[in-house]
Design goal:
- This protein is mainly alpha-helical.
- It is 64% helix and 9% strand.
- It has one domain.
- The chain has eight helices and eight strands.
- The strands form four sheets. The protein has a two-stranded antiparallel sheet. The chain has a two-stranded antiparallel ribbon with strand order 2-3. A two-stranded parallel ribbon has the order 4-8.
- Strand 6 and strand 7 form a beta hairpin.
- Helix 1 runs parallel beside helix 3 and helix 3 runs antiparallel to helix 7.
- The relative contact order is 0.16.
């Protein structure tokens, strides 16, 4: 069905948009920061997407998109870089509301440091598998930068909960995208390891994207970000 990808975007957007005006979360009050983060990060993500599509990292099905393309990307793919961060940052605010008390889990910082370095090394070792190499190196690089300059983004209890919740949503929607399939991948560009129908590389892509949006969102947010953060005892 030519509307498949469009309907997926609408499904991602619908709940967060309708609940933006819930008096408990009042997400609509955060929209200036939300859209500032989306504009900043999505501009870079779209540039990457254009290059990756042209290089054959992945391909979009004509049968499941409406046929409008910009620089080789379906209109729905551009909408993806609005609907997904909008929904994920809404989820962040919901976690903040229900968690009530946040804290810094400092014991997680060494693990993040190891992960960042390990991902970058794995990226270098990926060789000609370009999607594998790029996503591991960029994800590892961002994590490493955050451990140095913004470690609280990684080690807040709320951040870890949020990453877990959004990872489950990612598995749901990306399974649909890759099972239909709306998007397919160049066999020589990926490792071949999959979680169901999802290339393993997409998990690192998702983590990179989430951390980039969250970091910029917290930067643009005028009020203190979420609940008071206390060191873990």
């Amino acid at each position: 069905m030519e509307y498949t990808y469009l309907l997926i975007n609408l499904a991602i957007l619908a709940g967060p948009l309708l609940l933006s005006f819930d008096p408990r979360v009042r997400y609509y009050r955060r929209w200036p920061a939300v859209f500032a983060a989306i504009l900043t990060v999505s501009s870079a993500m779209v540039f990457w997407d254009i290059h990756a599509t042209a290089a054959g990292h992945w391909f979009f099905s004509d049968a499941h998109t409406i046929g409008i393309r910009f620089a080789g990307l379906p209109l729905e793919e551009l909408l993806f870089f609005v609907t997904v961060p909008f929904a994920c940052l809404f989820t962040w605010e919901v976690v903040q509301f229900y968690l009530k008390k946040d804290e810094l889990l400092r014991g997680m910082l060494p693990l993040w440091r190891i992960a960042g370095i390990a991902f970058m090394l794995a990226g270098f070792a990926a060789g000609s598998r370009q999607y594998t190499a790029w996503v591991l190196f960029l994800c590892g690089g961002l994590i490493t930068i955050l451990t140095i300059f913004k470690p609280e983004v990684l080690i807040r209890r709320s951040s870890l909960i949020w990453i877990g919740v959004t990872a489950m949503l990612f598995l749901l929607f990306n399974t649909v995208l890759t099972a239909v399939p709306v998007v397919t991948y160049g066999e020589d560009m990926v490792s071949g390891i999959r979680i169901g129908t999802i290339p393993l590389e997409d998990s690192f892509y998702n983590l990179f994207m989430l951390l980039a949006y969250l970091t910029l969102y917290l930067r643009f947010r005028r009020a203190p970000a979420g609940n008071p953060v206390q060191p873990a005892s």
